[in-house]
Amino acid sequence: MSDNLSSLAQSANTAIADPAPFIDYPPATDVQLLRGLFNEESGEWETTAIVRELTGEDEEALATFDSKEDITYGEYLVHLLQRAVVSIGSQEVNKNKDIIDKLLIGDRDVLFLAIVRATYGKGREVQLGCGNCGGSNDVVIDLDEDFKMEKVDKDLTQPFLVKLKDGSTLPFNLPTTGDSRYASKKGKTVAEQNTLIIARCLQADEGTPASRESWAKKLNVADRKKILKEITSVQPGPRMGEVETQCAHCDENLTVVLDWVSLLFS
After folding, report:
1. pLDDT confidence of residue 13
2. How far is CA 246 from the centre of its chain?
3. What ranges do the domains of the chain cover?
4. Cys staple from 252: which of 126, 140, 170, 247, with CB 3.0 to 4.6 Å?
């Protein structure tokens, strides 16, 4: 056997003997939620959800939905989750799409990030232009490492007690996906949205939604700010941060800042 053929045979034998190349299979589609949903039949909180990857059909449907007038960011996210979340605990989303509105905002974001991961894998590659040289860069966002998960030490299934200026203490729930969507749709200003959030998060069996909104309007500003701080600053979930990298062409520092939707389709 010639030296050349011997070398080729040795290379082939080495390749056969080496372990098989690692394949990054799609991650599991089960997701652990921070609070989850309450099952009235069992009397328990269900915290495991199942999501699926997005398809071309989903992309077309979401584009059609996004083309409608006056669609808010929250409505878009809810519509996306209604398509790609298979189930939450024992509850199937396609049989009751309204359950998405009952999720904490943090759980909504946990599910969204899981859908991105199921669709693209652990790394999400995006293109970023350099403002210095104009070069195009392929930047990989690590979906596990680049999103800080905020957690709280409080029981998320129980209301938060807020003490007001007059000494009274009232129970408030953390804002849900439905609360956020309703406030952003109905409130024309930030102040109006704050009123709606306070009214909807007040845990009260008595009174109509309209009467709770009237009560929230008449609250003094100090109490309103305190309530909002208490129920929004503790919202757990993944945080969209900045990803620092360098331009591959000129070594200029680059900062990647994305919102949830651009992370999915950019």
Report:
1. 46
2. 27
3. 30-150+238-265, 160-235
4. 247
Task: Give the pLDDT score at 19.
Answer: 46
Which parts of the chain sit beneath pLDDT 70?
A: 1-28, 206, 241-242, 258-259, 261, 266
Q: Quote the CA–CA distance of 218 and 213 in Å, as a whole number.
A: 9
Give the span between the Cα atoms of 134 and 45, in whole angstroms. Answer: 51
Integer Cα distance of 93 and 65 in angstroms: 18
